[in-house]
Design brief:
Shape: globular
Number of helices: 16
Strand order of the largest sheet: 1-4-5-6-7-8-9
Order of helices and strands: HHHHEHEEHHHEHHHEHEHEHEHEH
Distance between the termini: 29 Å
Largest sheet: 7 strands, parallel
Radius of gyration: 19 Å
Low-confidence stretches: none
């Protein structure tokens, strides 16, 4: 199906665009009253993720309400460990919780490579429904967690400021760590390929906990596996977003992906120098900017766009939009990107 708005795909590939495309991480979610209405009618988050028709509905909401240039399938990175045999729960106001974790080889032996069609069929079905209902209006983004980030949850069992249990394994059981990371990687490659086959136009790999590793460990226990994922996927463009991995930006230029996401602490022009001209950059407005006044948001957004310039940029926040953000302020950001970047692109012709 031909896309009516293919700005995101063209920008990812480095092709010329009439303006900068814009979307937001976590755009389908708690900022929208329409999302909360669907969510509150269910037992919880996991029921929403595993009900394809409803997951499709909330995926499309921000396209209709906010006017973003892409939809991102409503799901969670933790569906992969669950498909591998480690069930998770989503505890209200606390986040994910794994009743069982991987503490050693006995626990590892109970895991399996995810059978994508049977274990994650509900995500693939949600993608198919979403694609049909979008009818080519905008691209659909598929995603997965980076192996290191998934590993963190499988060892720790929940979110953490330090992920010291996960990091301890890298020192005490490096072979086990590698085996688990490889199993996650193999599952993730098949999962992303299945998402693409179901209709995803572009995929993003989220390395949310990249920044807690020292540089040598990041190379060995994260980039190594992200590289495998990027090398395996050639059907659609790939975006890698590694939060806090400012020390790895120069190495990221060698990844076989089209787009590198920047968090809000990464200097834009320095990032461009380190990553090079052959990658599209995505980001990176501070999410807290959207708590400011309309004038402040417009000023900050224009400044960000000036720093990125008109070429090879996908506008986004430097992390997911925070749940108590006013949707009207989000619209100010999106509309400013559209209007200001259109002028930038036309004067650059």
């Amino acid at each position: 199906m031909e896309l009516q708005n293919d700005l995101l795909i063209r920008a990812a590939k480095g092709e010329k665009t009439e303006r900068t495309p814009v979307w937001l991480m976590r755009q389908a979610g708690r900022i929208l009253p329409e999302y909360r209405a669907v969510r509150n009618s269910l037992s919880g988050f996991i029921e929403l993720v595993t009900t394809p028709e409803l997951a499709a509905e909330v995926t499309i909401q921000p396209v209709d309400i906010l006017g973003v240039d892409a939809a991102i399938i409503f799901s969670d990175i933790l569906v992969i460990p669950e498909a591998m045999g480690l069930k998770y729960e989503m505890v209200e106001k606390k986040g994910p919780w794994f009743p069982e974790t991987v503490n050693g080889y006995d626990d590892f032996a109970k895991l399996k490579k995810a059978d994508v069609e049977s274990d994650l069929g509900y995500v693939l079905e949600a993608i198919k429904i979403t694609k049909k209902e979008l009818n080519g209006r905008v691209p659909l983004i598929g995603f997965a967690g980076a192996p290191w980030t998934i590993f963190c949850y499988m060892i720790e069992g929940q979110g953490s400021k330090t992920f010291s249990k996960a990091r301890r394994m890298l020192y005490n059981e490096p072979l086990l760590a590698d085996q688990l990371l490889q199993l996650i990687t193999d599952s993730t490659i098949e999962y992303l390929k299945a998402q693409i086959a179901a209709g995803a136009d572009i995929v993003q790999v989220f390395d949310s906990w990249a920044g807690i590793l020292p540089p040598d460990h990041y190379q060995k226990y994260s980039m190594k596996y992200i590289t495998q994922i990027c090398d395996a996927i050639d059907e659609v463009p790939v975006t890698v977003f590694a939060k806090g991995a400012y020390f790895a930006r120069q190495e990221m230029r060698h990844l076989n992906c089209q787009t590198i996401g920047l968090d809000w602490n990464m200097d834009i022009q320095e990032s461009r120098r380190l990553i090079g001209e052959n990658k599209t950059l995505q980001g990176n407005l501070d999410p807290c900017t959207l708590y400011g006044s309309v004038a402040d948001i417009e000023t900050a957004t224009r400044k960000m766009l000036d720093n990125f310039g008109p070429g090879r940029h996908i506008a986004n926040l430097g992390h997911g939009v925070y749940p108590d953000t006013d949707p009207e302020k989000v619209k100010v950001f999106i509309n400013t990107v559209k209007e200001y970047s259109a002028v930038m692109h036309s004067t650059n012709d």
